[in-house]
Amino acid sequence: MGIHASPTCTMEYSDAVGFLIGEPNAGMRYMFTMMNTARLSVGLSGLALGEAAYQAARAYAAEREQGGVPISQYPDVSGC
Q1: Do residues 47 and 55 touch, judged by C-beta distance below 8 A?
Q2: 1 with 56: CB under 8 angstroms?
Q3: Strands, E, within 1-80: which ranges?
């Protein structure tokens, strides 16, 4: 589980040629669209990881016994 990478990097473009993508003077609008999509994607990733952690914890609690009883049946755990 988890994201095992760093989303940061440094890039150098020596003698690179740039091209206009999209409409002139619309770069800020495009940038904020991209940023909001990235924010939603990060939120969805967090939700998915939380669900995966919850399912793993439930499976562990169902198989792990304490005093001959699965810990998923203890009152403090069974309400989840």
Answers
A1: no
A2: yes
A3: 65-66, 69-70
Per-run averaged pLDDT (10 residues), the chain, 80 residues: 68 90 93 96 95 94 92 82
**Total-model pTM:** 0.61
In angstroms, the CA 71 to CA 52 distance is 19
Closest by CA position to 33, among listed 41, 19, 7, 18: 41
Question: What CA–CA distance (Å, rounded) separates 46 from 35?
Answer: 17
**Cα 75 from Cα 60, distance rounded (Å):** 16
3-state secondary structure of 21: coil
**Tell me, what amino acid is at 37?**
T
Please state, in angstroms and rounded to a whole number, the distance separating the CA atoms of residues 37 and 50: 20
